[in-house]
Fold these 3 entries.
Entry 1:
Amino acid sequence: MEIVYVNVDSANLYREANYRSAIDSQVVLWEKLERIEKEKQFSYVHCEDGYKGWVSNHQICKHDMPIETMKTVTKNHSYIFEKANVLSQVIREVCAGSSIPLEQIKNDMVKTFLPDGKEGWVRQDSLNEINGDNRSNLIMLSKRFLGVPYFWGGKSAKGLDCSGYVQLLHKLVGISIRRDSPMQFEDAVLVSENPLDGQVGDLLFFAEEGNRITHVAVKLSDSEIIHARGMVRINSLIPGGKDFDKSLLDDFVAVKTFLNEK
């Protein structure tokens, strides 16, 4: 078993070792992977969040040099430039939730490097720290993704599924959670079985097929949720409210949270 790193903005994690296979999740730039098996075009890997799947060999590489300081990208979309100038050649895109190495700061640019050894520069405001209350920060961040299209297996600002969206928001406030909605339901702390209870930033879970959890949303206000369903959108839980969706109440299971104050 060897360690490899994601060398692109985001790479699909396939169920089988071919591009026609179902996409179960994604991995992002500099994400550390344990390679379990290598074939000609794909590698079977174990991801940091526990997921396993096949990723293209063209999108990962080994990196043996020590890394001292990593910082999380907090801007939805950012670019790594060849020089400390936003008019220079773009050498990589980078999405929110990725963590990249820091080397030096020059004006408003930060020098970094990629798993393949290439060096580049990213705008310093792409790495703005998110400080303060996790609940208010999570809500602030959640709205940044409004309108991002739904993409099964997606966990970047180019496309998100419901649990990938929830996982990304928690990662941006410093909380690591598992990938799928049934896993998140299992791990989170129960708040209530009333959809109108709880605090902003709590999670609402839904079962569209019997008792199996199939969907998750973030509590945005006393009566609204924000979630990835078709796209990242806001829905009301109150009949007559703006964008009320009765099916959400029909399928609701529980309010849970990862934001319990210590």
Entry 2:
Amino acid sequence: MNKKLFAVIGISGTLMLGSVYSISANTSGYDLYKEALKKTHSAESATLNFNLKIEDNKKSILSSESIFKSDSVNQVNSISTRLANETEVSNMNMYKQDGNWFLMKDGLDTIYKMETSNNPHHSNSAELRDDVENLIDVMTKNLQQQITVADKQNGNHVIELDLTGKEIPLTANALSTLMIKHAAMIQDNNESESSGFHIKAKVPELGHDITVKQVKLTAQVNKENYIEQQTVKVVVTGKDKQDASHDLVIGIHLNASAYNQTTVTPVEIPADKVVEFNHGKK
């Protein structure tokens, strides 16, 4: 499967992995989720519906609805995304074909051509990966008994981790630090780019009294051993530099379907409308 597509599953399951890897190899939850990730990664094609929502004090500050289609055999991918913050809405379509990404945004006649190798966000992604690995190391120490696995009549399995309050004291500091750090990275990157192109997320910068109230993750694995659904909910409270209180809720929902059956049709790209997009520069 395309690495960008698989990353959606991987990132939304990061905390789940932290618990799974803490369980002995004889535990069904460990084997089930680990093997499902491997099987999912090996799929030649798939369709993912990915939704993200961030709320601050019960007010939505950023939401996205995306449909990812990946065909690794023919090396063709498509992504359609609707982004919204408190005041703006943006619709974009991205296509990967002929070895390049092409981006089309509603309201713009220009088609942007992007080479991902020149994307400055790659360094941030690598740093995020390293932080995730460190977070997993922290989380694996005390989460061995919290994961549950339920078998459904249709042959599917539901894996769940739901931690609240004192159940997550050792992970709270690591998790909150990670979230704040990379939220700030996203904010800085957005502010450095063209204001007419990107929608900005006004994520509050928490400075003290930071507490992780809840971490809830659910993954559904179908009888073919592919990840079919995955949800993540994280609740963090804290105060900013002005001592204002914030209750942040981050929610991710993923539906996966059409494994090894997804077809992505290449689109016609008019050469006279294509411009090189220098990502991260005005």
Entry 3:
Amino acid sequence: MNAPADRAEDPAAEAWRWAWFMLSGDRPAGAFGFELVAAGPGAAELAMTVPPVALNAFGTCHGGVLFTLADAALSIACNSRGQQSVAQTCSIAFLRPVQAGDRLIARASERARTARTAIYDCAVVNGATGKVVAEFRGHSRTIAGHMPSVRPPETG
């Protein structure tokens, strides 16, 4: 199956375009203020500042929010080549507590890839301390079809 004719020839530009598409359509990412920092073939970096609404009963960031941040980075990384891919299985280890106002950075990178399956690791780091607060591993599965033709808005 061939990709649509309007695909960027530059893999980095194509990855950025799919990253923009994935993040702009992700409602939880919008609700928590996820920001696209970087994207490339098989890789993605997102950031967020933890809002008070993300805190659990102990006053620390809810694990589901950390998982959602890492999962969003996975979705961008595994769709970076323009083929539709979905998470097949994911796991996360929570290592340190996170407070409201903390700046988090999630860096997802491809570890292995076959024709239809890939493995990604994502470290969620506290931007102020540089310490890893969570480690995420996700397996993705490529499904039928290519990503739709999209163009991110022009930036000035």
